[in-house]
Amino acid sequence: MTTANQVLSEVEYDVVGKRPVRPDGVDKVTGRAQYGADLNLTGLLQGRVLRSPHAHARIRSVDTSKAEALDGVRAVITAADLPFASMSKDELGGDYNRFKFLSDNFLASNKALYRGHAIAAVAADNAHIAEAALALIEVDYEVLEPVIDVRAAMQDGAPLLHDDLVHTSAMGEVSEKPSNVASYMKFEKGDAAAGFAQANVIVEREFTTASVHQGYIEPHNATAHWRADGQINVWCSTQGAFVVRANTADVLRVDVSDVRVTPMEIGGGFGGKVSFYLEPVAALLSSKAGAPVKVLMSRTEVFEGSGPAPGSWMRVKMGANRAGKITAAEIELAFEAGAYPGSPVMQGATCAFACYELENGAVEGYDVMVNKPKTSAYRAPGSPQAAFGVEQVVDEVAQKLGVDPVEFRLNNAVTEGSRKVEGPVFQKIGLVECLEAAQNHDHYRTPLSGPNRGRGIAAGFWMNRGFHSSVNMTVNPDGTVNLIEGSVDIGGSRASIAQQAAETLGIGYDEIKPQVVDTDSIGFTMVTGGSRTTFATGWAAILASEDIKTQMVERAASIWDVPAEDVEYDSGVISHKSEELSFTFKELARQLYTTGGGITGTASLDPTGEGNSFGVHVVDVEVDPDTGKTEILRYTAIQDAGKAVHPSYVEGQIQGGAVQGIGWALNEEYYFGNNGQMMNSSFLDYRMPTSLDLPMIDTVIVEVANPGHPYGVRGVGEVPIVPPLAAIANAVEQATGKRMTALPITPGSVLEAEWNGG
Amino acid sequence: MRAIDYQAPTSLSEAVSIMAANGDRARPLAGGTDVLVQLRGGRREADVVLDTKKIPELNGLNLNDNGLQLGAAVPCFQIYQNSAVAAAYPGLIDAAGMIGSIQIQGRATVGGNLCNAAPSGDTIPPVITLSGEAHINGPNGWRTMPAENFCTGPGRNALENGELLVAIQLPAPAANSGTAYLRFIPRNEMDIAVAGVSSTVQLDASGQTIQSARIALASVGPTPILATAAGDSLAGKAISDDAIAEAGQLASEAATPITDMRGTIRQRHHLVDVLTRRTLNIAIRRARGEE
Q1: Could you tell me where the beta strands, DSSP code E, fall in B119-228?
Q2: What is the nearest CA distance from B1 to chain A, expressed in angstroms?
Q3: A629 in contact with B at a CB cutoff of 8 Å?
Q4: Which CATH code of 2.40.30.170, 3.30.390.50, 3.40.50.620, 3.60.15.10 fits the domain covering B177-287?
Q5: Distance (Å, rounded) from C-alpha A133 to C-alpha A127?
Q6: Environment class of residue A581 by beta-carbon count within 10 Å: exposed (0-12), middle (13-18) or buried (19+)?
Q7: Which of chain A's residues have a Cβ under 8 Å away from the Cβ of B3?
């Protein structure tokens, strides 16, 4: 058995594609990197949040007087302190629902919609006093029946979360009757019924997946100082400082320029730190107390009070003919939005059949509110759930046709020019190359033997994003370049962005000094998410570098007193096209201050052309027939990265995504008690895999250059979590003969399937 | 977390007087891997935390002809790193080496595991099947009780106010005897047993007949359970798959599990059967000196 990471490259560059040391590495391995919890301002108070013990309850009253009277308590706030509380529907107009939802998720006003919903907050001299004060706050709840299952929430007569606010399109029909269905969508291509009529084999199944959490190691935290002059400074752990700035300003009804957000180092996000929970609370506490306030979540608060990925229900139907071609496919998806509208069911719907050339397809999606925390993004939001259903049905169709599962997928794979069910046409993509790499891999070519073992494969898709990014780059007199960016570095993006700048400038990677800065210090930059950062902020760095090159050429021309068009820039050397005149980058940098001033390159952009990502995973498992426990024996993840700017960090993304997918597949779930309370809100009982549960995840980086980016880059961070759920289910089916249609595939559920003969 | 008074007495009598003076507001601390987590999480309250690591009687690890005297504050790693103890009590080592992580095993103690009285305490079943006794000291002097009587409910033990568990006494292993502990967890480490079983067997000199057996269960009732009927069913029987299967069945019947986030009633009965058969087979091999 070979165990190796492979990179299948088309193009080689000087810096892009190499594996330099990351700029933030030393601070992180020596413990000097500054995370939000490390921050200690003069006069800092500690804030804590009181949370609802009930999954669904009307809040009759909140009495904070005893807490306020406790020695050492400096401020107590409730929803009544948020500006929304004193604003009418007329004042807010069409934005009423948006503000109501936004504001209420920070501090609930009239209803607690999930266990863990924030009700009040305290700032005190220390955390112990703050905790003691929470216990003194008296909340009068009228406890209501909760609904936590997506299908139950869609039934007539289900408990309603928002009986007065949401007029929904229930079951596709626009209705004035309130329901928990926040929205409905449908996409069609061709004629599904006609396609099924042509099929020789049809498979139809229902699937469910559980609520799962991103499980970032660093809990949410925020420190805020609302100064006497009105300036609000915020330090926090976030994937997007500008989103925190905008929403904090919105919910506090202040101008965005009054809020400065400094993103601290981030201890994992995986989409979950696109959402935020504490910043306006800390700011209000600070305003009342007249001092900076730090609020930290415990792990239980993270599980109960921050957004998990949605649980889901799906029905998938697929037909194929004897030639091995899919003739039609349809899917219905119902995703849990949690307490407020906004599950990623749209993304699930658009990803569901993205790997397959479909002439006839239909996709329907429901966004359904339940008494759970408002769901948040989690790595390729919506796509893993959809793939769990679709990739199992694909597997079963291939089985019934007697076709190898990789061969079947190759037969039906989308290529450049294929049109998706909801409309878009693919540019150049690498699904076929990934499937071929799987077919040719030692893993797939090595037969699996032994009892109770099975091999599964699955494919996955993520569209990736472009979005806004800004970069400022300043040339220093020693020839180094400061690179200022607004993209929080989660997975090595300081390195991957600096590499693209160095490549463009033709100078060494070590000459670029990247820095992530606050919202006052850089132009608008969207979240680190959507697999966009290396693509879009990298592109901003390329454009800022081009700006520097242009100015360096003009400066050299001015020094030499020649026309700029006679000067060229090549590989970090500025030279005259015909005369013996040249500067290295360093030589010219040294002269800038005395020849007209420093040079700064800038770029702000909103690029399109993000290349889509595909991945194919192969997994071998062994299932203990006595205990139902699934052991992962071997795992290979193959992915088209377009161009891997830093292959080690791409491999890290692929391995990390695969591991989170393995956890989602086998053990992770929110386990609820009868009253909608999460029973396993700790890492002991919310079972993420540890290193002892996993083999080395082998990777293959396939490089089908994205024509929409100067270096061919595609986003890489999200798609690797898409295939594992179904790949493992397919492997378990091979090992046991049981088709596991509900996640997680726990030892208990495998035993149940055995006992039920399912 | 409330402010607590930390006391670290250096003698047993001083410790007992502090415990007696504070009643149920005092909590003894050995490794702290349970107590500190419970105090921080608000699941227990205490005014006084009494550190037992400076009391000589609680920190001895003495192996002699009478067996093993295991001080209640001796951490797991000291037990499994002592090669003579490890050779004499491999079933205890099975459990001591699987609690938490290596870091946890550097602090966590068998005595603390027993006092914490979690149904899932991994070291409790092997201490029970090895016929361990709890040596207790308090305001009224010494008393001793079999380990299987020590836990009285989830998180509750037989200690009276003012009493301390001082040591656990394991008898010297009989000739041709063997013990094994296995638990089932969904992960491979860092987890809590869905079910756990310890089996101790004593064979005749030929190694073909079981003279006596003790089987104890974890995580399948309000306390660890000594499955007496299951162990007794093997006494005097020739070793056979049928005999082992019958013991597995009887052990399963002795379990009184609940359905919770870690497993269902049916799954736990089933796992007790599986683990009983597996541990009996290992214990028999150990008794024969085969592993």
Answers
A1: 133-138, 141-146, 151-153, 156-157, 164-171, 177-184, 195-203, 210-218, 225-226
A2: 6
A3: yes
A4: 3.30.390.50
A5: 10
A6: middle
A7: 128
Sort strands A181-189 and A613-623 into parallel, antiparallel or unpaired. Answer: unpaired
Judged by CB atoms closer than 8 Å, whether chains meet at A666 and B192 is answered as no
What are the distances in angstroms from CA A34 to CA A28, A527, B203?
Answer: 9, 20, 62
Q: How many residues does the structure list for chain B?
A: 291
Q: Is A666 on the interface with B (CB under 8 A)?
A: yes
Q: Which of A244, A232, A282, A247 lies closest to A121, judged by CA?
A: A282
SS3 call for A543: helix
Task: State whether residue B97 sits within 8 Å of chain A by CB.
Answer: no
* Beta strands across the sheet bearing A118-124: A73-78, A118-124, A45-51, A293-296, A221-226, A232-236, A259-263
Residue A744: is the preceding peptide bond cis (ω within 30°)? yes
Whether B184 sits inside 8 A of A748 (CB atoms) is: no
pLDDT tens profile B133-177: 999 999 999 999 999 999 999 999 999 999 999 999 999 999 999
With a cut of 90, say whether residue A146 has pLDDT above it. Answer: yes
Encoding tokens for residue A670?
Answer: 């929110």
Asked which of A73-87, A377-391, A740-754 is least confident by mean pLDDT, the reply is A73-87
Mode of pairing for the β-strands spanning A512-516 and A481-485: parallel
Q: What is the DSSP string of B13-73?
A: HHHHHHHHHHGGGEEEESS-TTHHHHHHTTSS--SEEEE-TT-GGGS-EEEETTEEEEETT
Q: Which two tokens stand for residue A558?
A: 């001015």
pLDDT given at position B1: 66
Q: B60-171 adopts what CATH topology?
A: 3.30.465
| pTM for this predicted structure | 0.96
User: How many pairs of residues across A and B have Cβ atoms under 8 Å apart?
Assistant: 52
Burial of A517 (0-12, 13-18, 19+ CB in 10 A): middle
Count Cα neighbours of A374 within 13 Å in the Cβ-side half-sphere: 18
**Domain locations along chain B:** 5-47, 60-171, 177-287
* Residue contact B190–A692, C-beta within 8 A: yes
- Going by the DSSP 8-state scheme, the letter that residue B250 receives in this structure is H
Residue of A296, A626, A672, A688 best to disrupt the B interface, most CBs of B under 10 A: A626
User: Cβ contacts (< 8 Å) between A692 and chain B: which residues?
Assistant: 187-190
Residue A671 at interface with chain B, using a CB cutoff of 8 Å: yes
Q: CB-based contact (8 Å) between B263 and chain A?
A: yes
Task: Name the amino acid, one letter, at B45.
Answer: E
- Residue ranges and CATH numbers for the domains of chain A are 36-144+231-266+273-298 (3.90.1170.50), 312-464+611-756 (3.30.365.10), 469-605 (3.30.365.10)
How many residues in chain A?
A: 758
B65 and chain A in contact, CB less than 8 A? no
Q: Which amino acid is at B11?
A: S
Region class of A230: left (phi > 0), else alpha (psi between -120 and 50), else beta: left
Number of neighbours of residue A10 by Cβ within 10 angstroms: 11
For A522, phi then psi, to 5°, come to -155, 155
Residue A454 structure tokens = 């099975």
ipTM of the complex: 0.95
Q: Which residues contact A313 (CB under 8 A, 6 or more apart)?
A: A150, A151, A206, A207, A208, A333, A334
In degrees and rounded to multiples of 5, residue B79 shows phi and psi of -70, -50
Q: Is B164 strand, coil or helix?
A: strand
Measure in Å the smallest separation between the Cα of B193 and chain A Cα atoms: 11
Task: Output the 3-class SS for A406-423.
Answer: HHHHHHHECCCCCECCCC
DSSP three-state, residue A10? coil
Per residue in A411-440, pLDDT tens?
999 999 999 999 999 999 999 999 999 999
Residue written as token pair 């794979």? A413
Per-residue pLDDT, A178: 84
